Amino acid sequence: MTLAELLPSTGCSTEPVLEDGLWPDGTRIAGQDLVIGGVPATQLAARFGTPCQVLDERTVRTRARAFRAALPGVEVVFAGKSLPCPEVYRWMAQEGLSLDVSSAGELALARAAGFPAARIVMHGNVKTAEDLKAALEHGVSRIVVDSFDEIAQLGALATRGQEVMVRVTPGVDAHTHAKIATGVEDQKFGFSLASGAALEAILRVAEQPSLTLVGLHCHIGSQVKHVASYEEAVRRMAGLIASCGTRIEQLDLGGGFCAPYLKGDTDFDLAGFAHRVQGALNYECALHRVPLPRLLVEPGRAIVANAGVTLYRVCAVKESTRTFVAVDGGMSDNPRPALYGVKYAVRLVGRGGKAKPVTVVGRHCEAGDVLAEDVLLPGDVHAGDLLAVPATGAYHHALASNYNQVCRPPVIAVSDGVARPIVRRETEEDLLRRYV
Ligand code: LLP
What we know:
Elements: H1 3-6, E1 28-30, E2 33-36, E3 39-40, H2 41-48, E4 52-56, H3 57-70, E5 75-79, H4 86-94, E6 98-101, H5 104-112, E7 120-122, H6 129-138, E8 142-145, H7 148-157, E9 162-169, E10 191-192, H8 197-207, E11 211-217, H9 227-244, E12 250-252, H10 270-288, E13 294-297, H11 301-304, E14 308-319, E15 323-327, H12 336-340, E16 347-349, E17 355-361, E18 370-378, E19 386-390, E20 411-415, E21 418-423, H13 428-433
Parallel strand pairs: 4-20, 5-6, 5-13, 6-7, 7-8, 8-9, 9-10, 9-11, 11-12, 12-13, 15-17
Antiparallel strand pairs: 1-2, 2-3, 4-14, 14-15, 14-19, 16-19, 17-18, 20-21
Helix pairs in contact: 5-6, 9-10
């Protein structure tokens, strides 16, 4: 049953308090404004326009630190694809994290950020010759190989002991959306543990004189809620370490740590992860009598998702079978509802009041361009209102497109009352520059 059916003519109000955990740390309601990183949302919208992606620097840094503090001795690698931006990569470098990149393009951003090559890992199920050459030229510390073709190609291109990890499919179901589940068989990533391909890949790497195997890697999926999924992955990976007969110094468990999107969603249990995963690894390695590898993790979403808020301007309200509230962005800045059925919270900035269920839609030429279905907004919502959508820091800037030749929004960093663009708004000039 939809919210609209449950609340035909609702008497409830929009909530005067912010939902726990969804918004950047310290976000508050002051008067009727929403203050993010010390800067009122109305000011941000007036100064930078809408749609506008706001990113709270302090929240990003705090989350990055939390990973390092919870996991001492573990190499924490920021998943650069979750928020590709040189300034964000710089914050990560300052916080002592490593960085993973999955293309020459992401590597170019890392270089622009001056990210230390010794802390860069390259990933991807397909790395083109250009990606591999860029990685070798820049001297990235480790490359995670994902196919036999790639092992041969990298072996031929590398000249001096390039360190590699082998991406393994451990056969672990992380209970997440099928499109972001990568630990199971029958998807494109990794070498299957069950089929013996992973063991074969380890041998093939060993045959390449220009490559040095330093570790094994797995990434069981994204928006993973349960520590038990990682424990299972560790057990299986430790079994492989024991059976491969080669010293494995590093075990990379990938990313995937969930972030809250809606009221009631919980944060990932990082302390539980630290305790249980290291415990499982200690136990398995002792059992198999193999040296303990150093752990790596690759969080993206859990660091940046809740640091981000997107501001939209309402352009039109249409009453039909339901109330459609149409905004000046949509699936070009947030395709996640269309791709994965993700639901978002929405808040009107500027007033509260008696609420009614509405569907917030975008400006694109598709019926599926829906940002949030059945959310409560003040009943008098009208054109010109400002809406704020939390939990939009991860995979929003990254997935944005120019669909309908709509220019991509800026990313505005806020911190201690100061706002500054770290990605500028795209212009029609930018669009035209590519056309021949
Ligand atoms: N490591 C590897 C090898 C990955 O492929 C990914 C994400 C991560 C780490 C980081 O995962 P995270 O901690 O952010 O969950 N576009 C989708 C998410 C795709 C994830 C791709 N790989 C979304 O918007 O939900």
